[in-house]
Amino acid sequence: MSKKHVPLFTEYSKGLWDQNPVFKQVLGMCPTLAVTVSAMNGIAMALATTFVLVFSSFIISLVRTLIPNQVRIASYIVIIATFVTIVDLVMRAQFPDLSKALGPYIPLIVVNCVILGRQEAFAAKNNPLRSVLDALGMGTGFLIALASLGSIREVIGSRTILGVQILPDAFEPWLVMILPAGAFLTLGLMMGFLNFMVQRRKRREEAALLARHVPTPLIAAGEGAEV
Amino acid sequence: MELILIFLSAALVNNFVLAYFLGICPFIGVSNKLSSAFPMGLATTFVMVLTAIVTWLIYHLILVPYHVEYLEYVSFILVVASLVQFVEMVIKKVSQPLYRALGIFLPLITTNCAILGLALFIVLKDYSFVESIFFGVGAGAGFTLAISIMAGIREELDLADVPASFRGAPITLIVAGLLALAFMGFAGMITV
User: Best exposed site among A63, A117, A137, B84 by fewest CB in 10 Å?
Assistant: First the structure.
């Protein structure tokens, strides 16, 4: 089906950074902001989402030719909701504390735009193998985002990472970091910082490219201005 | 009195967007202009109230009597999706100008976590039928308030000199953070 020959590994790796669901596509904001009070919650949420994403991608890509176009969104949502119910019941039985901490955000995986977005954009058009790889990649990207955001908020908000104390007692925890406002601020600053890094690297590359074509005195002037 | 407290609690103290992080996608995506943010808020409120009514009936009259509560998520999301479809058809029939104004936003409401969140919270908090309706109206009012304030700020923000790397989503999130801080002023005012 796919005419363009994308290597299988690229299907996986593109979700890690180039198309990272949180930082690049700005999808799935609700769970990202809500559960990242601690690194553990973030990781658990990302794993649950990845499970749902992988299995629903697999099933949907298997039945993609059977579903009539008009009812595809409704069918996708029912398939996704089924897997979310499984995750919710398993978590309630096996990890009651975690399930309580994540509360209504586990059932809300159903409406996580990352999942529906991948079904619509990828699983509905590609074979099961590629869809599963794509889903795994997006899930890992989601995990990276949630784990880093959760760690930053946990370390500044309560001095610990995964429950292990990192900062000394002398550091007064910033209460705002574990409140809703802290989630917005941290994610906003992180995204701004990442954009800044990407743009700086791009500028450096352009400057390096320019340096090869421009006579030397100009480069010296350009570098002076940079510093 | 209890009902008014539920309304105020959902609208201000436990604002769906700024305290529960529900409905962030439209909150960031559709808050460019006040003229589209406010109708979006109203449409969401309308769907929220309908959802509160229908899901309450389904949960208490079908799922509980037949002991199939585990079908909660599947049935709720189907209700939301079909309600949105229904509202879209009614608006198209009744008012063409309103349909054109809201057209693109209506399907988006299906994936608005605030709607499903509302249905889940009603089950979680064990609200009665009337309480659920007030909760739905309050949550909708809170969403409309938050998205309208946000759109007002972003219209001003267009004129500001924001650093290149912070344009778009990052600055919007930071503004939302400051807004959430402001809404914390309501915390502890009402405890329901």
Answer: A63
**DSSP character at residue A120:** I
Find the CB nearest A26 among B78, B169, B174.
B169
Residue A101 to residues A44, A69, B14, Cα–Cα distance (Å): 10, 38, 18
Phi, psi of B16 (to 5 degrees): -55, -40
Q: Using the beta-carbon criterion (under 8 Å), do A88 and B73 form an inter-chain contact? A: yes
* Chain B residues touching A199 at Cβ < 8 A: 164-165
Give residue ranges of A with CB < 8 Å to any B CB: 26-27, 29-31, 33-34, 73-74, 77-78, 81-82, 84-85, 88-89, 103-104, 107-108, 110-113, 116, 176, 179-185, 187-189, 191-193, 195-196, 199
The pLDDT value recorded for residue A84 is 94
pLDDT over 70 percentage in chain B: 96
What pLDDT sits at residue B132?
94
Q: Give the single-character DSSP code of A4.
A: S
A147 CA: distance to closest CA in chain B (Å): 18
List, for residues A86-112, the tens digit of each pLDDT value: 999 999 999 999 898 888 889 888 888
Q: What is the ipTM of this complex?
A: 0.83
Q: How far is CA A154 from CA A95, B11, B15, in A?
A: 21, 29, 23
User: Cβ atoms within 10 A of the Cβ of A210, count?
Assistant: 12
pTM, whole model, 2 decimals? 0.84
- Asked whether residue A144 carries a pLDDT value surpassing 80, the answer given is yes
Kind and range of the H or E element at A105? none
